[in-house]
């Protein structure tokens, strides 16, 4: 439970007066109610159960001096066919957005200026639905204060992925809010790379209609980054949702994913892999609600930690009464490469239907000595052998990515990162 | 079990199904004993705390301890994180002390105990006559003797085999007796595992506990028989606050059993116990519970609110504690028997079956806190939900930075019978060193249709088939129980699920 | 090629002696076999030579071509030309067999200061060698040893041997868990690598593998020592009379 905290709230504006006054009717409405929501919930506190393993301080403190540093030397997805959209310092780099088949891409800032827009049925609405039973006030705050984002409306099969690449220079707090609407029978892949700001608060709301399909891949890197992300998604019948996040370095990352299966026969996957070194705190918080029959959900998380890095996993499967034939799977594993690193997990099941098969597994341990010896006996030096076993450990999470080319690209990227460290 | 004239013993290797048939009716222990009682005034205050202390002829230090706890309790708030929902307890609308009038004058031996009380325990199948047991020793092979401490509401009625145990140096008596007779041991250990301010209910217990059992096993002694305490709540509107303290000194061993029942009453009753176990170097304690408090009726009326704090401190190197529990009773259960693995190479085990039927709510599990090097823990939890019940496993496995080379394995399975109940799993895993290995597995599913069909095609009724399959599901835990309890528990599993199918 | 002198080994964790003064001299190009009952220390010898952790060498030495291998890391021993075919090859999910092989080949080359093998060349060589061992393309693509049958795992070990071209090969119970056909295939693979220079140490419990890989010298090991050495006929003697007679004889 998030206790309201008048003290913190009082010295912060939870909305931007200028932003609201410049908004059209729908946006004004959405922002004001989100602001009221955040106000009522209060900011997260250290003692909140929901923030048990991650201190919210770095996301809520007023001024944090940060120097963003990207990873210029390693590139990813260079060989992939894609539609590229660039963000610079939390703003769109170009005024014109690409026009592609079966899909319309607009900017949040433009849509906000209008009095009516299709996004009004989603913007802030899925976030609101995701506020129960746990209060996520920083997401509400995002809805109230987001300055930019993409509105992606997929009306059919979108042949190549849409990639958002962002670059930030200097110390910037970025509040970004994307909305994706996938129509019946449509499919689209969204890729996010780079960093919107040194400290970013990103929300993605995704509505997948019956028979729609949405894929999401996110690469988080940059040494000093502080990222808080939320995905709120509602998934219709016979639909698919898949999200994969790779987190390498960064200082403080918390990725929340709140999915609700509202139509029958659908499947969702949330997967992630992280490579943490030293001053690294990474938190995956997932909440999947099954409110329909015969759906499958998968949560697959792998964390490789060293030099005092901390990995957190809070994952929950909620199966509502009547959500029969649910297949829920959850695995969270950590590989601790030295004595100083930590793995903290709370994998939960809450189940109110009987004809279900739900399971979770969680393990933590050091590198497998037997495998290490096998590799070394073949002449592979120890550091390289550790890298190979690291890849082996992470492989299951990458295996959740449907597109083999994208999976391969991530694997090579990981190999490059491992070689560089 | 229907054990009118039989003492607790392992029966013939009867089929579960037959056990089910032999046991008709739902809750077997719902009758009450008509007996004249003496109550402390209703409600809770410092005066009540003083009264309880004086009733037990306690020394000054004990009273001071209680009063400090009471004052602390007033500052605490009732925890609300468990997945249980019950009306707010009015702590002033309870009796905190109730004892049979006939117990006012402490009976000198079991022969002096009120026949009504003896009859009660006989009816429950708990033998308080040493002869009955002694006679049994020569008869069936492998039968073991069990020493019993019988607690009736707020007082211990009597303890059997004390003299014989004393010969081995084992102290087994009620805690009130221990406070009077062995103050040095009690003062040294009481509250050292569960501190006074540990949690709301434990603190309350510290203030108002009335009786319970005390065990001390001296160094190098293997306790010559199983020890057990049988708790019976009889009086209405009365909370039972038992306190158990078991100390296994170096290289000693003890197996301890605990059973509990209460009459069927419309109004919910409070039970808030604290159990502390201390195992020194190379000592081993086995603690088994069959908790069968009155669960309330199918509409959720009445039943026991069971808020229990049980914790073991594996203080010594190579010490070992094993908790086994079969939780079938109570309207609300809030219970986490835990192990603090402080000694190097110490071991903790937790085996649990929790069955919640009708409107029962259970939130139970364990904490394994690894502090010492090379410590090991194992958790096997089997939860069964039926009717409209909610059953939650809640657990913590914590590997501290210094607990190098430690191991944990957790298996936590839930079974759902019917679509109105809930099964929940809330494990916390905290690993702070890399030489330790933690493995956690959990599954939730319904009773396997193929297994049910197979049983039924062989002629079993649906309820019998469910009982059989559920017993199979629980087998690993049932096997961890001492033989005497295993049979009783197996039958209990079947009874607890009555009315859950069809 | 390999000189083992008075090698004494105990477990690191507990005070348990396993090897009690092993002496062996393996000439280049020869095949030596070590036979012995379970628990005689055969596998420990192979692990200690290849550098597995958990063992402590209390006395003695082992030199490969004059170099003290006991001082080396496992990968250095591999680069120096030592190869151990595991009794239980380890599964590495998520790492392709090819990636694994190529990493191993090039790591060794790098350690020896040789140029790396190009991707194209590597592929050509690996395909040719795999074909000889009846290892299909699919097995090369799959993760290392994951989902391999017992025979496939052992053939994969021999493929690694063929690719890495060691000077000194130790085969630890390579025949265990194999049927006759699989064993023949593995033996053929090994025999193909016998070139008059390469040395083999074949550890086995049974004589049957030695029908297919003909040894020059047979040693009998018991209780951590070589108790008898002789020609191939010694293996037959074991086959016919078991170990008991031999043990008594030397007791």
Number of domains of chain B: 1
Strand composition percent of chain B: 25-35%
Biggest sheet record of chain C: 6 strands, mixed
Estimate the global geometry of chain C from the Cα principal axes: globular
Write up what this structure looks like.
The complex is a heterotrimer of chains A (421), B (502) and C (251). Chain A is 22% helix and 38% strand. Chain A has 10 helices and 19 strands. In chain A, the strands form 2 sheets. Chain A has a 10-stranded mixed beta sheet with strand order 2-1-5-7-9-11-13-15-17-19, with helices on one face. Chain A has a 9-stranded mixed beta sheet with strand order 3-4-6-8-10-12-14-16-18. In chain A, strand 1 (83-88) and strand 2 (91-92) form a beta hairpin. In chain A, helix 3 runs antiparallel to helix 7, helix 8 packs across helix 9 and helix 9 (382-398) packs antiparallel against helix 10. The longest helix of chain A has 17 residues, at 25-41. Chain A is globular, with a radius of gyration of 21 Å. Chain B is of the alpha/beta class. In chain B, strands 5, 6, 8, 10, 11, 13, 15, 16, 18, 20 and 22 form an 11-stranded mixed beta sheet that branches. With 251 residues, chain C is α/β, with parallel strands linked by helices. Chain C has a single domain, classed as P-loop containing nucleotide triphosphate hydrolases (Rossmann fold). Helices cover 40% and strands 28% of the residues of chain C. Chain C is built from 9 helices and 12 strands. Chain C has helices at residues 42-50, 74-79, 97-111, 119-132, 137-141, 150-164, 180-192, 208-212, 233-250; strands at residues 2-11, 17-26, 31-35, 55-64, 67-68, 82-85, 92-96, 143-144, 168-172, 199-204, 217-222, 225-230. In chain C, the strands form 3 sheets. Chain C has a 6-stranded mixed beta sheet, sandwiched between helices. Chain C has a 4-stranded antiparallel beta sheet with strand order 2-1-4-5, with helices on one face. In chain C, a hairpin with a 5-residue loop joins strand 1 (2-11) and strand 2. Chain C starts with a strand and ends with a helix. Classes of the chains: A alpha/beta (421), B alpha/beta (502), C alpha/beta (251). Chains in contact: A-B, A-C. The A-B interface holds A 49, 321-322, 324, 334, 336-339, 341-366 and B 81, 399, 401, 404, 414, 416-446. Strand 18 of chain A pairs antiparallel with strand 22 of chain B, so a sheet runs across the interface.
């Amino acid at each position: 439970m998030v206790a309201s905290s008048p003290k913190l709230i009082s010295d912060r504006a939870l909305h931007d007066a200028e932003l609201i006054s410049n908004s059209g009717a729908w946006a004004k409405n959405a922002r004001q109610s989100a602001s009221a929501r955040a106000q009522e919930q209060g900011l997260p506190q250290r003692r909140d159960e929901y923030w048990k393993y991650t201190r919210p301080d770095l996301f809520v403190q007023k001024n944090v001096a940060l120097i963003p540093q990207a990873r210029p030397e390693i590139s990813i997805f260079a060989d992939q066919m894609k539609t590229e959209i660039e963000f610079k310092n939390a703003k769109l780099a170009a005024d014109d957005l690409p026009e592609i088949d079966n899909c319309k891409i607009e900017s949040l800032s433009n849509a906000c200026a209008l009095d009516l827009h299709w996004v009004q049925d989603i913007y802030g609405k899925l976030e609101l639905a995701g506020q129960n039973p746990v209060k996520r006030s920083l997401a509400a705050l995002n809805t109230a204060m987001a300055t930019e984002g993409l509105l992606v409306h997929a009306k059919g099969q979108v042949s190549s992925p849409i990639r958002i690449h962002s670059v930030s220079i200097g110390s910037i707090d970025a509040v970004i809010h994307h909305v994706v609407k996938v129509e019946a029978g449509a499919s689209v892949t969204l890729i996010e790379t780079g960093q919107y700001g040194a400290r970013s608060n990103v929300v993605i709301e995704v509505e997948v209609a019956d028979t729609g399909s949405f894929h999401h891949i996110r690469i988080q890197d940059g040494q000093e980054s502080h990222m808080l992300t939320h995905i709120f998604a509602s998934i219709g019948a016979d639909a698919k949702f898949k999200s994969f996040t790779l987190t390498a370095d960064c200082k403080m990352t918390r990725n929340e994913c709140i999915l609700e299966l509202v139509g029958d026969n659908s499947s969702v996957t949330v997967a992630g892999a992280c490579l943490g070194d030293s001053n690294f705190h990474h938190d995956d918080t997932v909440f999947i609600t099954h409110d329909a029959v015969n759906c499958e959900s998968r949560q697959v998380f792998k964390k490789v930690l060293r030099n005092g890095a901390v990995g957190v996993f809070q994952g929950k499967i909620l199966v509502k009464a009547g959500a029969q034939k649910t297949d829920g799977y959850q695995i969270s594993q950590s590989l601790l490469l030295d004595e100083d690193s930590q793995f903290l997990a709370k994998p939960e099941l809450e189940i109110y239907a009987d004809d279900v098969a739900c399971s979770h597994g969680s393990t933590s341990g050091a590198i497998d000595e037997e495998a290490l010896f096998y590799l070394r006996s073949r002449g592979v030096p120890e550091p390289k052998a550790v890298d190979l076993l690291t890849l082996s450990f992470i492989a299951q999470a990458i295996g959740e990515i449907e597109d083999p080319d994208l999976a391969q690209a991530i694997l090579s990227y990981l190999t490059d990162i491992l070689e560089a460290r | 079990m229907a054990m009118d004239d039989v003492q607790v013993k392992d029966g013939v290797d009867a089929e579960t199904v037959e056990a089910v048939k032999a046991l008709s009716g739902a809750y077997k222990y719902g009758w009450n004993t008509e007996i004249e009682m003496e109550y402390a005034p209703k409600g809770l205050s410092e005066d009540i705390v003083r009264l309880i202390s004086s009733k037990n002829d306690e020394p000054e230090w004990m009273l001071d301890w209680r009063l400090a706890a009471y004052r602390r309790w007033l500052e605490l708030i009732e925890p609300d994180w468990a997945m249980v929902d019950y009306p707010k307890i009015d702590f002033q609308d309870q009796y905190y002390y109730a004892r049979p009038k006939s117990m006012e004058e402490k009976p000198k031996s079991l022969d002096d105990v009120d026949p009504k009380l003896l009859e009660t325990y006989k009816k429950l199948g708990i033998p308080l006559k040493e002869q009955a047991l002694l006679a049994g020793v020569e008869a069936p092979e492998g039968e073991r003797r069990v020493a019993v401490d019988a607690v009736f509401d707020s007082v211990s009625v009597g303890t059997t085999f004390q003299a014989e145990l004393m010969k081995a140096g084992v102290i087994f008596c009620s805690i009130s007796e221990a406070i009077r007779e062995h103050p040095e041991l009690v003062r040294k250990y009481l509250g050292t595992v569960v501190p006074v301010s540990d949690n709301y209910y434990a603190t309350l217990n510290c203030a108002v506990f009335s009786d319970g059992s005390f065990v001390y096993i001296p160094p190098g002694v293997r306790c010559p028989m199983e020890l057990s305490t049988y708790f019976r709540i009889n009086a209405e509107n009365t909370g039972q606050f038992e306190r158990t303290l078991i100390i296994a000194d170096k290289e000693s061993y003890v197996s301890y059993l605990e059973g509990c029942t209460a009459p069927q009453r419309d109004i919910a009753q409070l039970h808030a116990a604290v159990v502390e176990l201390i195992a020194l170097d190379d000592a081993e304690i086995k603690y088994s519970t069959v908790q069968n408090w009155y669960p309330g009726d199918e509409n959720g009326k009445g039943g026991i609110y069971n808020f229990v704090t049980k914790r073991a401190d594996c203080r010594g190197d190579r010490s070992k504690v094993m908790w086994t529990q079969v939780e079938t009773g109570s309207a609300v259960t809030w219970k986490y028997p835990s192990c603090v693995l402080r000694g190097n190479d110490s071991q903790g085990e937790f085996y649990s079956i929790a069955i919640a039927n009708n409107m029962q709510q259970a939130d139970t599990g364990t904490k394994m806190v690894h502090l010492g090097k090379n410590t090991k823990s194992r958790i096997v939890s089997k939860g069964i939900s039926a009717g409209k019940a909610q059953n939650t496993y809640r657990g913590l496995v914590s590997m501290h930075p210094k607990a190098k080379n430690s191991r944990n394995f957790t298996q936590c399975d839930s079974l759902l019978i019917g679509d109105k109940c809930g099964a929940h799993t809330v494990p916390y895993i905290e690993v702070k060193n890399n030489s330790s290995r933690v493995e956690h597995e959990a599954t939730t599913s319904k009773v396997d249709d193929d297994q049910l069909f197979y049983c039924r095609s062989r002629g079993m009724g649906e309820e019998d088939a469910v009982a059989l399959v559920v017993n199979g599901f629980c087998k690993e835990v049932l096997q961890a129980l001492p033989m005497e309890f295993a049979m009783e528990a197996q039958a209990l599993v079947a009874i607890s699920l009555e009315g859950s199918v069809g | 090629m390999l000189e083992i002198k008075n090698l004494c080994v105990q477990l690191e964790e507990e005070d348990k002696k396993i090897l009690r003064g092993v002496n062996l001299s393996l000439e280049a190009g020869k095949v030596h076999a070590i036979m012995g009952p379970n628990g005689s220390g055969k596998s420990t010898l192979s692990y200690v030579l290849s550098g597995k952790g958990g063992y402590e060498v209390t006395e003695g030495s082992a030199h490969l071509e004059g170099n003290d291998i006991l001082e080396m890391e496992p990968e250095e021993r591999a680069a120096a030309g030592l190869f151990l075919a595991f009794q239980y090859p380890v599964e590495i999910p998520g790492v392709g067999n090819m990636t694994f092989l190529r990493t191993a080949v090039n790591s060794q080359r790098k350690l020896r200061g040789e140029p790396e093998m190009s991707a194209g060349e590597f592929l050509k060589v690996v395909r040719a060698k795999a074909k000889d061992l009846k290892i299909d393309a699919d097995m090369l693509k799959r993760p290392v040893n994951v989902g391999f049958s017992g025979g496939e795992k052992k053939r994969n070990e021999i493929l690694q041997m063929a690719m890495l071209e060691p000077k000194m090969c130790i085969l630890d119970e390579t025949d265990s868990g194999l049927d006759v056909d699989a064993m023949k295939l593995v033996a053929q693979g090994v025999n193909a690598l016998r070139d008059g220079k390469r040395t083999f140490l074949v550890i086995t419990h049974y004589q049957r593998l030695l029908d297919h890989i003909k040894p020059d010298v047979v040693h009998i090991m018991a209780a951590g020592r070589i108790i008898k050495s002789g020609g191939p006929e010694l293996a037959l003697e074991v086959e016919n009379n078991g170990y008991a007679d031999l043990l008594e004889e030397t007791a």
